[in-house]
Amino acid sequence: PTMSVDWQDAHGDAIDLTAVYLESKEIQLSCWMMATTKLELQEKFQTFIDAVLSSGIHRLQIGIDTDKPLIYQFYIDGAINTIKEWYKQAYFYEFKLNLNEPDPVKRIYRYPASNTSIRATITTPKPVNIFWGDGTYDYNVVGTGKTVDHTYATTGTYFILINGEVDAISSLTFNRTTQLKWNRLI
Known about the structure:
With about 190 residues, the protein is mainly beta. The protein has one helix at about 40-55; strands spanning about 5, 15, 25-35, 60, 70-75, 80-85, 90-100, 105-115, 115-130, 135-150, 155-165, 170-175, 180-185. It contains 1 helix and 13 strands. β1 (about 5) and β2 form a beta hairpin. The longest helix is centred in the first third of the chain and has 16 residues, at about 40-55.
C-alpha cells in the first residue's frame, strides 16, 4: 500500500508514489494425495503435515523451468481440512492449504555447489534475509560490506533466496559463481 492523505481543504488525495511496499502474500493450494492402502495414505499424509506444521519458514519450489523455478518461503495459515475418498484399490485425501509468505519480494540465485563454502558480501541499509536453499538461513543481514559465510553439507545445485527490502541492496557479490535467476520475484 502507498501512503496517501485526504486533506479536507483540497481536492483529491496527496499520494506518495516514491516507494511501493507490498504486504504479505496469501496463497491457497488445492491438493490431493493418493496411496494404494488406507494405512499408507494416513502415513504419507501425517509425514507431510508434520513437515509443513513444524516450526519456522518452509520452502515451496515450483519447477516451471528446471533452471528458473518459482520459490516461496511460507508458513501454514489456518486449518487444513481434508476430504477422504475411497475407491477400488485407490485411496485419496483432498485438502486445501492456506500459505502465507511474509516477505513476498525476493531475489533468487542459482549456485551449482562444487565447492561447499560460499561467501556473500552485501551493502544494504535495510535488513534482508538469506535462505541458502538447504534449510538454513541468516536473518536481518544489514550493513555496508557485510559478509555472510555459509557452508553446505553436500555438493549440489542450490537456489539462494534473498527476501525483505531487496530494492535497497546497493551491492551484492558472491565469492563463487552464481547465476541471478530472478532479480525481483513477487
